[in-house]
Amino acid sequence: MLANLLTRTLSGFVTLVVVLVIVFFALEALPGDACTAYLERDARDALLAACRERFGLDEPVPARFSSWAMALASGDLGTSILRDRPVGDILWPRFRNTALLAGVAAAMAVPIALVFGTLAALRQDGVFDIAASTVVLVAMTVPEFVIATVLVFIFAIWLQWAPAVVTVSAGAPVGDLIGAIALPAAVLTTTLVAHAMRVHRATVVEYLAFEFVEAARLRGLPKWRIVLFDVLPAALPPTLSVTAVSLAGVLGGVVIIERVFNYPGLGTLALQAILERDLPVLQGAVAVFAVTYVLLAITADLLTELLDPRTRRGTS
Known about the structure:
The protein has 316 residues and is an all-alpha fold. The model has no long low-confidence stretch (mean pLDDT 82). It is 77% helix and 0% strand. It has two domains: 72 residues, no CATH class; 223 residues, MetI-like fold. The protein contains 15 helices and no strands. It is elongated, with a radius of gyration of 24 Å.
């Protein structure tokens, strides 16, 4: 297990480095820079030169990348060019908001996936199983912005149960955010439930065919007890693992969801930084996204290694 963890960590570190390098040089290849975006019509030669000298944009690209990489290694994310504030201070409340959104979605997705996945497995090939599998397939293939549009139409416009957009500020208390994230969390939950439920159903079906389940039936134990105390504890680790992986995979979808609902999270900030060409902010946001992805992927591996009895026995 330790060797697998070290391999996964090294792979995640390499992925993080590659992503940061690609983002840095891809942005450098675009026309203009943060000074042209900031000065707009006043972007004349003298003002541009002074702005670029102030923020070090007049230095060669390799030199700026080297300076930024060394600062990042020491935990310094740099200073926002347009806001003239430390990037860490800008990112933290946005990351908190995105983490809150993802945490609420995961907390809702796991119980829903467990309940409906188990019911579908117990009614394998029945009407409920077919209907649930169809809904899961649709949820996995339909883009997040389409799901968001449908939910806005139903719950915000038609029923008027929830606001269509989030109007609280990025630094608002968590209590204010909780009351405003119903629809964004529902969209993210739909995606997570689809992936987790599919895996959970398949795992429960697999365990129901195992010999220990048949032995329990022969001993006269009721079916609900077998499922609740024998099958579900064994099927839970793969479900938690795929939820962690799915949560990492939908980080890209979080950017779209936050944009649709005007949610003050890290994804919205990253899009704004792209428009403003505020490279330090965008690099910091990408670094946080990448680190979060790697940590969630490692967490998924650890859950599988520690909790899955098949893994502990060294069998497939």
